[in-house]
Amino acid sequence: MKIVTPAARAEGQRLFGAFQTWGAVPVEAAVLQPAETLLDLYGEDIRARAYVTQDPVRGEMMLRPDFTVPVVQAHMAGGAEPARYCYLGEVFRKQEDGGARASEYLQVGYEVFDRDQPLRADAEVFALFSRMLAGKGLRAATGDIGILIAAVKGLPTSDTRKAALMRHLWRPQRFRALLERFAGRAPLPKGRAELLARLAKGDPVASEAPQIGLRSRAEIEVRMAKLAEDAATAPIPGDVVDALEALIQLSEKSRKALEDMRKLASVLPWIDPSLDLFEERLSVLAAHGVDVASLDFEASYGRTTLEYYDGFVFGFYAEARPDLPPVATGGRYDALTAVLGADQNGGRSIPAVGGVIRPALVVELEGRA
Questions:
Q1: Is 358 within any annotated ligand binding site?
Q2: Is there a binding annotation on residue 85?
């Protein structure tokens, strides 16, 4: 766990002040956050990335893994619209690189809640970050999780299979394995194949061993029936799978990427509305001074981050320092606002987009560490 240096803290304060000059209201968030909320959002996987502790009164708590969730909660409890917020403080993430990366680091962020002009908000945040990080030798990468979500939701297959693919959209290896299996290109796991073979023969699936666990026999039988139903589902057509895999692997300049995706839409026509939105966003970005002709687009960008992004995503990287994490990242997270605002805002989503900068990395790149 590395110490936040005075230079990094000073840079954080400078960026924090700059966000306020753009009309952002400064907000604070408790360092200890209720674990229940984060577990409900991300499942048990979050435990592998967050520091968890037990409070005798408040129950299970987590050291703040990011600011977005508490900022959204604060806004949904009664924020004005449109609204801009900024924040500065430490976040805590477990690392698996032997300590090469900090598990506690300073983060400064900017969030925009705008129901009427979400594309303009996307462009505002990205253009602002581009200007603030100009001249530091960074490469900007962009993506659009919304296109991938649309591609999966439109697949000609069962709702059960589409839901399984959506659950693993942010786990690329597991997603591809499922897609290949649903296309009939990969075998079933051995245990499932044996179970389905017994069910097909009408053999009772029973055991003399005592039943343990929380599931009742009725629940187990329902699960087996669903497995049998899934096994009878027709494979996803090969040309559709090929087009989806080509989409996932696409990496080009933004204008060329749009052309390539339009071609893939001949096989995946249900992504056309998302591509129209992408094309419109490029125009709005250009109007905000972004050189979209040279802007990199990676269709899979954002799939390995926290799972609340559901639209435009971006990051800024030091190409000369591939050992460093992204200097800045951000994106759109409309669905998150609906989940967190279910009890406070009638479940309505408020379109929201934001991003964070790591001041310590800015300082390091400038040789001020």
A1: no
A2: no
68 in a known ligand binding site: yes
Residue at token pair 């693993």: 168
107 assigned to a ligand binding site: yes
Q: Is 66 annotated among the ligand-binding residues?
A: yes
Least Cα distance to 119 among 310, 274, 278 occurs for 278
CA torsion sign, 275 to 280 to 284 to 289?
Answer: positive
Q: What is the pLDDT of residue 41?
A: 74
Which residue shows structure tokens 């497995």? 227
Give per-residue pLDDT as tens, 312-354: 999 999 988 988 899 999 999 998 888 886 655 555 678 999 9
| Per-residue pLDDT at 236 | 95
Residue for token digits 């002040």? 17
* Furthest-apart CA atoms within the chain: distance in Å: 72
Is 16 marked within a binding site? Answer: no
Q: List C-alpha distances in Å: 356 to 38, 88, 102, 348.
A: 19, 9, 16, 25
Domains of the chain: 1-29+64-136+326-369 (3.30.930.10), 156-239 (no CATH)
Query: Which residue reads 């801009």 in tokens?
Result: 84
Cβ(167)–Cβ(174) under 8 Å?
A: no
Token pair 């666990």 is found at: 213
Q: Which of 14, 22, 31, 41 minimizes the C-alpha distance to 110? A: 22
Specify the higher pLDDT residue, 229 or 30.
Answer: 30
Q: Is 47 annotated as a binding residue?
A: no
Closest by Cα among 305, 330, 342, 308 to 38: 308
Contact 309, 331 (CB under 8 A): yes
344 is in an annotated binding site: no
